[in-house]
Design goal:
Blueprint (H helix, E strand, L loop, with lengths): L9 H36 L1 H26 L1
Length: 73
């Protein structure tokens, strides 16, 4: 008569489901704020630093995309 499968806590799952989008929004806002501040600081330092930063960022994006293609299947 005893069911060996654990019963999921429905209330906890529902609470996490409600909080998850909120925390994603908070993390996204913090990342956006840091990005804006760093772009502002780079722009104040001059065009040569901006060019270097853009090249490094482009290389990082290309590298991550290549790794995703290789390991993603």
């Amino acid at each position: 008569m005893d069911d060996p499968s654990p019963v999921p806590a429905v209330a906890e799952d529902a609470l996490l489901g409600l909080l998850l989008p909120f925390w994603q929004l908070v993390i996204g806002a913090v990342v956006l704020a840091v990005l804006v501040l760093s772009i502002r600081r780079l722009a104040q330092r001059g065009p040569s630093r901006m060019t270097t930063a853009l090249l490094v960022t482009a290389a990082a994006i290309a590298g991550i995309a290549a790794l995703g293609l290789l390991f993603g299947g």
